[in-house]
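[scheduler] slot 2 assigned
[scheduler] job type: sequence-to-structure, two independent chains
[scheduler] chain ordering preserved from manifest
[runner] begin chain α
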Amino acid sequence: MFLYQKMTSYMMSDKVNIYLAGAMESAGGNMNFPLFDFVAAKLRAAGFEVCNPADLARQHIGSLDQIRKMSKQDLQIASRELLWMELTWIRYKAKILVLLPGWEQSAGAQIEKQLAEYYGVKVWQAPDVILLSDVELDNILALAKE
């Protein structure tokens, strides 16, 4: 019953909920955390609720240093668990999925995009150079209102 109640509350939210999708493991040594964190901060400052996979990784696995020290096998197990949480958030809460530059190189981001499209979540591809100007933030908000 708890999971059902939680999912129902996600679906009833009027807030514009954005999920960030992009390359993490394929981005090199920093897991692309700086890009995810920058975009999440800009969107939150504009009033959006944001699911940032970098935040989820830090909450459920540990710091970037801890993640770097994990064996490949342990990282794969942890990544699978995170992907389940991320896909659940997209399915039940996201109104917009933002594709970050380089998302095409990420199998996880490709799955997230497919799931979003399947369930009617709007998809917005960020430009190659992410500044997220007021105009771009307005475009994201307009997309949510369509």
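[runner] end chain α
[runner] begin chain β
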Amino acid sequence: MNKNRLKSYAPAARLAFIQAATDRAHFWGLSEKGAEPIEEKGDVAIIGGRPFPRQVAGQRRKLEERIKREGFPQVMEAVAYTWFNRFLALRYMELHGYLEHGYRVLSNANGGTIPEILDHATQVELPGLDRQKVTELKLDGGKEISTLFWMLRAAGTSTAATEKLVKGIYPCYSLSGSTLNYTFMDIQIDGPTAYRDKQGYKGTYKLDEGTGKIVFESGPLTKANAKLLAGPRIGINMNGGSFFNTTCSLKK
């Protein structure tokens, strides 16, 4: 492996993801200078003179509130790290055959220019996927490739309902810059409500299977904000936000 190429790529990728997150925030009327007002009319939310579905207004307000709490650059960097980690995990899974549907999402094993999953879109089984709409888009000659890919992505992101927090040891790692460091902290899941830390201190937890939220009701992690992530993994932070700078993956 050429590690020098990897070292040069990681900082550039980080900046590219931060810029992409920033550009998207600008699209929703958010910037370091402030937020454009939202005007709601019937089923439409108008932001910066552009119409959006009304449900976007609530989502935009939540993002605006987070930016007020944490700062614009900090939120953009957190979002960039989240998506960078997701793409890395997805790439690893598709190369090693861990995706249940069996098709690559970011590349094409046959050397094609579009992701393999789009070639087999009508054969993919994903929760919440509108199969009739997928078929219509495919019969349309693939003109709406971006729409089709978005539908498949959205249908495949609901992991909370299908992922299980199984028994086992979950070593924890934290992200510092572009480096993943072992925290010397492990979480051992002993059962559906019981856990212990690396030192053997016990506690109880409650998992909301609908949202994936984990509440440590007693024991050493009562102050932690946690969520069940794909893997399975346990995401942890101490600020109550949606970015989990520490993740604990099941040791296999």
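[runner] end chain β
[qc] chain β: Helices lie at 3-27, 55-70, 72-95, 116-119, 131-139, 145-155.
[scheduler] slot 2 released
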